[in-house]
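Per-record layout

source: Caballeronia jiangsuensis
name: 3-carboxyethylcatechol 2,3-dioxygenase
length: 316
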Amino acid sequence: MTLAVLCASHTPLMKDGIADDEVRSSVKQGFESLAKRAEDFAPDLLIQFAPDHFNGFFYEVMPSFCVGINATSLGDWDTSTGPLPVVSDDALQLSEMLLHEGVDVAVSYRMEVDHGFVQIWERMFGNFSRFPTIPIFINSAAPPLPTFKRARLLGEAVGRWAAASGKRVLISASGGLSHDPPTPSILTAPDEVKERLISGRYPSEEVQRARVERVLAAGARAVNGTPEILPVDPDWDAAFIEKLQSGDLEAFDAIAMKDVRAKAGRGGPEVLAWVAAFAALSTQGKYQADLVYYEAIQGWIAGMAMMFAEPKADRA
């Protein structure tokens, strides 16, 4: 069966962060182009790899990977709330197969997801319910983080299951690229912030408002450069995209996550989701990966990229 990959960056600053009208228009056009690619592919099932930002997953129990048997959007950063259209039977079968193949995944019958999962779909289609879905969380924010090799092996196992499913499966990822939002570290945070990182579900309106204001202020400072936030690095992003397009995904195995955080920022490890998605596609042989859009948007603290890929045999 045919597989394809759709990847796009997300950012909490997409709505209210600083960007000129031309940039906003080009981002909108990029999402429209990506949506057309998805519609033309006409998937029976969407499998999405994405991170969380201490909204649904916390240090009280922090898995490296988790398959959602059911999932609900929390509605942060102007995204909508409500249940995702999860195909629970398929999600359970996939999780069992992953464990059988030696990929340790948790499962959740009440997964809560944030803008990392749903924002790109709302930008493409106005809602996150366009396709039946299996969500897979990858820990990208709470060290210790999984390695690129583990993300690659997860993706390859997902790709084998998808290819054997008898369905047209769109594999998706969202995150990064170079991306340094002001995420606190549990090692240095004050006690009240540590508690939020450990068990911070359902924060008060006051806490939510303070968090939003802090991120918006950081984005405003990032436009002109600020020492506490790494600038978006288009060279790092280009090198990452070129590695994906090359098909040599094992080359990522040697990259240490501490180096990613040092060069691409605290949100840089979200690219684990992209590697997992392309690894799933790689199980079908060589692929063609198109860069649909890229812009280093400093006011959004994000290297905004969009890609779509299919097996080369399908392009013949």
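summary: The chain has ten helices and eleven strands. Residues 196 and 207 are 10 Å apart (CA to CA).
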